[in-house]
Amino acid sequence: MPSSAHRQQAEGTPVRCAVITVSDTRTRATDRSGAFIREALQEAGHSCVQYTIVPDAPTPLTDAIASGVQVADALLMTGGTGISTRDLTVDVVENLLEKPLPGFGELFRMLSFHDIGAAAMLSRATAGLYRRTLLFCMPGATNAVQLAMKQLILPELPHLVWEIRRQAE
To answer: What are the Cα distances from residue 161, in Å, to 27, 49, 154?
Structure first.
């Protein structure tokens, strides 16, 4: 069956999401990227069942992921995807992934290139499956999160979740 037929069958699939902001400095009041993700999910008919801000450190992030996969179909993470020594999100997530989705990072960097040029290569945005839950790692910049959500994640999120659920049947 072609992907367009699958996408059509998946239309209207509600998705439970957890949002994790990885930052040593952001708070609920200053987390514009996390706020955008939650608002965009709601506008698309999905729910945010958990929202947390964790520091750039492996243990708090691993704990937040473990908690999120218990309640959500998808974990949307923002922050910690760059190349600084404190950017550990991708390192933690890649150690957990059971099925990487390399196309997400590839497409994100391609789209980013049109906006910011060669600096797009600094992003290590990635995605994949862990315990039948989608994990998406986006940069912390709000414009990058908007690009990822609007052009990549939201258009395919119901289809991705539908594919995971139907495999369990």
So the answer is: 30, 16, 11
Q: Which three-class secondary structure state does DSSP give residue 106?
A: helix
The CA distances from residue 23 to 79, 90, 139, 162, in Å, are 6, 13, 11, 31
Per the CB < 8 A criterion, the answer to whether 127 and 104 are in contact is yes
115 to 72, 78, 107, 112, 160: CA distances (angstroms): 31, 19, 13, 5, 26
Task: Render pLDDT for 9-68 as a digit per residue (tens, 0 to 9).
Answer: 657 778 999 999 999 999 999 999 999 999 999 999 999 999 999 999 999 999 999 999
Tokens found for residue 69:
């996969």
What domains are defined for the chain? Answer: 14-167 (3.40.980.10)
Which residues are 153's β-sheet partners? none
